[in-house]
Amino acid sequence: MKKLLALSAVLMAGVAHSATYEIDPEHTNARFAIDHFATSTNVGGFYGLTGEVEFNRDAKSDKIDITIPVNNLQTGSEAFTKHLKSADLFHAEQYPQMRFESAKFNYTGKGKNRRLSSVDGKLTLLGQTHPVRLKATKFNCYQNPIKKAEVCGGDFTTTIDRTKWGMNYLVDIGMAKNVKIDIQIEAVRK
Q1: Distance between CA atoms of residues 116 and 109, nearest Å
Q2: What is the block-wise mean pLDDT of the chain (190 residues), using blocks of 10 residues?
Q3: Cα separation of 151 and 114, whole Å?
């Protein structure tokens, strides 16, 4: 019993302090989907994301800072990818990165039932920064047997109005302005 109490105290001490996690670019991506004139859905994704997460299960000092390299955009079509990177849309030459910085992690429940529900933050795209709320559809931490470290990660989703960032291409002739974004994040404790 004493050993169990001592182990619990050690684990709780580790939980009470904020920890830094490094984004794993191999397991982190941001994908988008946009309606294409009500005929189909255009999709693509950004890979090789980098950044850090500060996570504390007991406090409200959590934060995330992720850099999204625009040149890592992939769509499955070389011509479509090239057009998306052009000045018409992501303008990769002038704006090589997007960035998400959190302002607040939102939780539901208490104690063992406490769950991450969403993350409020700011998305910088095309040189403009606006608020975004990422809804957490999944979030968990576990001891990774391969990396021999604690790993935290989850799936997040949001829908943005791209025109708020000045991405107006074809909106005037009926192309959708709302873009669904799904983000998968995995980060390894430093």
Answers
A1: 9
A2: 38 57 97 96 98 82 94 97 98 98 93 91 98 97 94 97 98 97 97
A3: 18
